[in-house]
Structures are given as C-alpha cells and as structure tokens.
Amino acid sequence: MVQVGAHDGRAGHDTICAVPRSPSDSRAPIVAMIGGGQLARMTHQAAIALGQTLRVLAAGPDDPAAQVTPDVVIGAHTDLDALRRAAQGVAALTFDHEHVPTEHLERLVAEGVTVAPPPQALIHAQDKLVMRRRLQALGAPIPAFSAVRSVDDVDAFAQRTSRPVVVKTVRGGYDGRGVVLARDLAHAREAVAGYLADGVEVMLEERVAMRRELSALVARSPFGQGAAWPVVQTVQRDGICVEVIAPAPGLPAEIAAGAEALGLRLASELGVVGVLAVELFETETGEILVNELAMRPHNSGHWSMDGARTGQFEQHLRAVLDYPLGDTAALAPVTVMGNVLGAAEAPQMSMDERVHHLCGRMPDAKVHLYGKGERPGRKIGHVNLVGAPGGSPDDPEYVGALRERAQRAAHWLSHAQWTDGWDGH
Ligand SMILES: Nc1ncnc2c1ncn2[C@@H]1O[C@H](COP(=O)(O)OP(=O)(O)O)[C@@H](O)[C@H]1O
Ligand SMILES: [Mg+2]
C-alpha cells in the first residue's frame, strides 16, 4: 500500500480508499506473459501471492493459464497486434515459450515496452545455431557442431568428429521434437534431406557420450543481481523430461559450483532478464557441456515450487520486475519431481478421483496439474516429493526411495495404476 501511494505521489493512507478495478490491487504492476501454457499458469499462481495478476496472451480460452487468470488476451504470438494488446500498460512482457518473432519484439521495444528477456538475449534460446556460435565465442564448453547447407555436410562433419551425429532443427523444437539421434550416417543424411526438402533449417552436433543430463537454473535481474538454484539431474525419455532430482546426486562440489558459475556468467554475458535454464551434459569423463538454453521458467525447475525457499515462478516475476531476488536455498536434502505424462490410453477413473486416492496414500506428495486434456506422452502435470530431513543426495538408498515414490505418484496420476501393485480396496 505505501509503495502504491509513493508511486502516484499521494499520501500512503489515501490509497486505502482506492477502488480496485478487479479483485486484485488495480495499481499492482501488470506482467504480460506470451503463451498460455502451464508455465504461465504457474507464474500466475506466484503472481497471486505477490498481489499481482499475470496477463497472458493465449491461443484460446482453454489454454492452461487462460483458465485461471482473469486477464487474458486471445491471439497468436506471431501477430504483432495481439502482442501490442497484451503489452498495453505492462511493467514487463515475458514468455511462456520462446517462439515470438524477433522483429515483433524489437518493434515492441521501440514502442517503449520492457521485454524481458530482451530480444537480443532471447535469440539464443530461439535459434540453436546462433546459441552454439555465441557460446563458442564465449569459450563455454559445448559439443562439436556444424551448420548445414547440403546433405554432403553430414559426411564431412562425421569425418571431422568421428562421432555419431545428431541432427537438430535450428528453430522451433521442444520436448525432443526436431532432434534426431541418428543410428548411422545414412539415417543422418536421410533426416537432413527430409528437413531441407521441407525448407527447415538444420544443424549437426556430435552425439555426446554422457553419463547423465544436468540443468543449471539461475535468475538475473536488470539491476544485475543473480541467483542460482542447486544444479539438478534431469532424466529424459524419448527427448521428454520425465524426472528431476534436486540436487544432482553424487555431483562433486567443484563441478556443481562450476556449473552454477557458468549459468550466472551466461546470464550476465547474454543479458538475460528472468530465469535462465542451462541444459547440460555430464560426459562419461565427467566434463560439463552446454546443451541448450531456455529463458523462462523451465521443467528442470519445477521442483523449486515445493523444494526451495523461492520457487522459479516467483523468481521469474521478481527478476522481470527488477525486484531483489529471493533465496534459492533447498528446503530438503533432496526433492524429486516426476512429470505426469498422458498415458497411451487415458484411464476410466477421473483425474479428480486419482488425486483423491493419491492424497490418501501419499500425504506428502505435492500435486501440480495443468488443466490439460490427456493425450499420450503430453505433459499434464507434475508431482514433487520433498525428502525428509536427515538424508543426503549422496545416499543412493535415500535418493532411490524418494525417486521410487515420485515415480509411483506420477504414474498413478497418469495411469490410475500403482507401480507396486498396491490395491486401495
Ligand atoms: N549432442 C547431443 N548428444 C547426445 N544427446 C543429445 C544431444 N543433443 C540432444 N540430445 C538429447 O536430446 C534431448 C533433446 O535435445 P534438445 O536439443 O535439448 O532439444 P529440445 O529443444 O527438444 O529440448 C536432450 O535432452 C538429450 O537427451
Ligand atoms: Mg532441451
């Protein structure tokens, strides 16, 4: 209240009489998020606690965030007029996905909109080739890569690296779509030929021989403050994240510290504002390589909603509004997140009944559902299991038991089947 009074130059107590335009404080800052998916939905959840309302630009009224926020603009993220409507009067405009055309964002900036992250930073999360070249110039550790002009580039690249080849679309990929881990050279050539025939720009990477995948999640504010969460392990199946273990078990302290520092350095060098996820590979020889960047809340940070002092959605809002950042310390020795992915065949039992049963069997499971229809493999929610005190990320038994429970909870929510055969009746 006092802050609001200070803003419009009136005495603090005057503002108590202000009539709110909506159930929320009419002079709280408005943040617009482009895209109405689950990330916007959960950012809105954090906005509520800060006394704000998140405005979303959603493709339709049934989008996960459009269902929950009263401030919705329906339109396409590729439509400049829709973007302008969403940007009207906002303190900052930010993203649930990275697919907004750069020229539109530059127009908005020219018209005075605070775009966070700014377009010249966001490009590194939109275009994997631009990102690889920039990281190379910054001396960040990355896999060997190559641009592609013709199918013949595949053989030249494979010869240079002597490694299996990964073909990636330069733009627009997500959840493994647009990534081909080629079986052999013929497969790689075939994939490249197919994409090029469709006019899709592709690039090549060496297939990294890895122990596992990690993620360094950080946030940066325009003021220049940075904050890093503990480095986590991510588990992918068919290119989709299925599980996150926070912190990454058994990761040597100096590697973890190095990865956090790398995340903060990249956020600063690239001028990121908001949350930055740096997807990493831990190679078989223990090296860290950067896979890709996301400049928004990220699946690898969902654990922080229940497992950290400040969750990534609140932190993203703080960062784009240039507030001081929150404490990122973990609340438990280990937190495990299990993604709820739509089953091959949606169960007969309603989701509500599944939630009901889960509450009964696992009172400590924290459920987050996105309001999405169940389709095979689709991310429809996640479950966080926050470990009991006294354990350690370096204790395989403690971590294993927590992972088993998170997987059991997530599988139950998607399949209405207990992985351990338990029968509630
Ligand atoms: N160079 C690589 N070597 C080995 N595996 C890779 C490589 N690039 C991607 N992958 C695998 O494919 C997944 C998806 O690739 P990524 O570039 O992150 O695409 P997306 O944009 O779909 O997340 C990664 O999480 C990893 O499991
Ligand atoms: Mg990825």
What does this protein structure show overall?
It comes from Mycolicibacterium frederiksbergense. It catalyses: 5-amino-1-(5-phospho-beta-D-ribosyl)imidazole + hydrogencarbonate + ATP = 5-carboxyamino-1-(5-phospho-D-ribosyl)imidazole + ADP + phosphate + 2 H(+). This protein is α+β, with helices and mostly antiparallel strands. The protein has helices at residues 2-8, 38-49, 80-87, 102-110, 119-126, 128-137, 152-161, 185-197, 253-270, 304-307, 312-320, 351-361, 396-415; strands spanning 31-34, 54-58, 72-74, 92-95, 145-147, 165-169, 179-181, 202-206, 210-220, 226-228, 232-237, 240-246, 274-283, 288-294, 335-341, 365-369, 379-386. Helix content is 33%, strand content 23%. Strands 9, 10, 11, 12, 13, 14, 15, 16 and 17 form a nine-stranded antiparallel β-sheet that branches. The protein has a four-stranded parallel β-sheet with strand order 3-2-1-4. Helix 2 links the parallel strand 1 and strand 2 (54-58). Helix 2 (38-49) crosses helix 11 (312-320). The longest helix has 20 residues, at 396-415. The N and C termini lie far apart (52 Å). The structure holds adenosine-5'-diphosphate and magnesium ion. Magnesium ion is lined by residues 279, 292.
